[in-house]
Amino acid sequence: MNKLGFCIEGSVHKANNKCHGFISVTSFGAVGDGKTDDTKAFLNAWKAVCKGASRGKTQLLLPLGKTFMLKPLTFEGPCKSSSIAFLIRGNLVAPGYSWHAGNYLAWISFDSINGLVITGCGTVNGRGSVW
Predict the structure, then answer these.
(1) pTM higher than 0.85 for the full model?
(2) Which key words are in the record (predicted)?
């Protein structure tokens, strides 16, 4: 399997990208065109959410209609908040080349984070056939 799709989003969120308590990865420079490397923007957004620099917003929004290309990365804790959420409305895609040849055992990983919730109706495409 090289794609993971899920839709477990509750009725609390509306179909637009304006959610209270969320900060968008695009606010940190993520482009979301499926080609531009958005890894640095995601890590900067993560640091703001995890370390408490986002004014109490502990939920990271990946907006609808965007495709974010990410190189291998680790979202690391511990975080200040006891509850951190990713709302995936857009899409995540791995690079179109074999990144597995490096020192990476995983494309996206989470480490030392309590209370992590990943939700949304987006698609996660690790391009498993590439490697």
Answers:
(1) no
(2) Cell wall, Cell wall biogenesis/degradation, Glycosidase, Hydrolase, Secreted
Please provide the average confidence, as pLDDT, over all residues in the chain: 81
pLDDT in tens, 28-54: 999 999 999 999 999 999 999 998 766
Query: What average pLDDT does range 79-103 have in this prediction?
Result: 83
Of 39, 46, 78, residue with least CA distance to 60: 46
Alpha-carbon Rg for the chain in angstroms:
14
Tell me whether residue 18 is in a domain.
no
CATH value at residue 33: 2.160.20.10
Query: Alpha-carbon distance 131 to 128, whole Å?
Result: 6
Residue 54 CA to residue 50 CA, distance in Å, equals 8
Partners of 117 in the beta sheet? 85
Count of domains in the chain? Answer: 1
- For 53-74, letters b (16+ CB in 10 Å) and e give ebeebbbbbbbbebbbbbbbbe
Within a domain: 6: no
